[in-house]
Amino acid sequence: MKPLTKAQITIGLLAFFATVWGLIVNQGIVNFFDLAKTILIFFVSIMALAYVILAILEWVQVFDDLKTNAIITLIVLVTMLLVVFYSMN
């Protein structure tokens, strides 16, 4: 597996768990189906965004290191999705 693909999957999963943790702790959704639907939507959107953002950063080559691009992608994803999450309240 390519290092870029590993980074995309790892960053996507880290961002997913960070946002789902915030969702479960702060939202207090009691209906299991609503919670499962929201978690599935977050998972699909985060994985797609991680793939796209990291691919764009590697393509543009603003930063030379994959680790730097991965950290920037993680910060952008978690910040963006937490803002979306808190705007839902």
List the helices and strands and how they pair.
Layout: H1 3-27, H2 32-60, H3 66-87
Task: Please give a structural write-up.
This protein has one domain. By secondary structure, it is mainly α. It has helices at 3-27, 32-60, 66-87. The mean pLDDT is 82. The longest helix has 29 residues, at 32-60. Helix content is 85%, strand content 0%. The radius of gyration is 14 Å and the shape is elongated. It has 3 helices and no strands.
Short recap of the structure:
This protein is mostly helical and about 90 residues long. About 85% of the residues lie in helices and about 0% in strands.
Spell out the key features of this protein.
single chain, 89 residues, 3 helices, mainly alpha, elongated
The Rg value, from CA coordinates, equals 14 Å
Low-confidence stretches: none
Overall morphology: elongated
- The separation of the N and C termini measures 40 Å
Mean pLDDT: 82
Q: What class, by secondary structure content?
A: mainly alpha
**Roughly what percent helix?**
over 70%
Largest sheet: none
Number of strands: 0
Work out the count of structural domains.
Answer: 1
Helix-strand string:
HHH
* Approximate strand percentage: under 5%
Number of helices: 3
